[in-house]
Amino acid sequence: MRYRFGDPFGGNAGDYMVDIRKPRKGSMAVRPRKRAKRHVKRVNAWPDSTEKSVLGFAGYKAGMTTVSWVESRQGPRKGMEVFGGATIIEAPPMAVYGVRVLANGSNYDEFSDDNDVMKPLGAKKKPKSSIKEGIEAEAYDVRLLAYAQPASTSTGKKHIERMELGVGGANTEEKLTYGRELLGKQLSVADVIKTGSFVDVVAVTKGKGWQGPVKRFGVSTQRRKATGKVRHVGTLGPFKPGYVQYTAPMPGQMGYHKRTEINKLVLGVFTKEKAEDINPKSGWPYYGVVKNDFIVLKGSIPGPVKRVVRLRHSIRKRETVEPKLSFIDNSSKN
Predict the structure, then answer these.
(1) Which residues, including other chains, have CB under 8 Å from residue 123's CB and lie 6 or more apart?
(2) Against a cut of 0.85, is the pTM above it?
(3) Which of 56, 133, 138, 281 is most exposed, with the fewest beta carbons within 10 Å of its own?
């Protein structure tokens, strides 16, 4: 005999505490749900690129505003003016202080001769290079060692933030040669990211502290007469296995997790001279004013304002478009 809602005992779905017509609560996509160790997160994968280029950059989230652009992609809105939300990311220049070769499970580094570049790292003298001749044959990848410089922004941060950046090239020898050419130089965001391209955003989300299962997983609240409690889980699982499984919605840390959002459209890359046109008269709430080059990204991104945001060339290839940005709202956001 078959029952409409799959109840093996033939009862109605409403006779039991669990509604079997409903999917489980809470996403199982990312586990464990614990705090990130640091807010400058590592990029675990870089796209393959045969062109000599830097594959990533870093900036600071200033806030969101309303923009309009002429849609150039194929679809029902092609050629129309579209209004939507966009995120402003301030991107001061990044200094390249080293090149790293990855080979045989080990890292081999070479550093810049420029004392002005090495001084913020606390290096009193230039470290010796560990890159040996012919290491390119054993190497499987090359990275740039660079740091962001938030002291020139309104974030209030003074210390540099170091990170690795991917390098594109036909082979490791070409990547290493290109990386050595960039040693000691300042990278601008316009050198790395182009208007109309797609980027992936790696950031740490807003922290919400310790939360219960209702807010953390979206489980339904119970009527007061059921158990005398309202905001708790009705069941923690079956009789067997005889322990609480990790899939059960439980209280715990919510937010401050590393998240990667892919294929964010770059609506514009602008120099610092254009910052006056987008800064509200009262400044960006909880941020201040944008003083450096900046990026306009379509939509929202993870994290609060002032948080460092890592940008990577899209790992899922998308065709470059040409959005024509026609309006950026600079009215007061307070």
Answers:
(1) 111
(2) yes
(3) 133
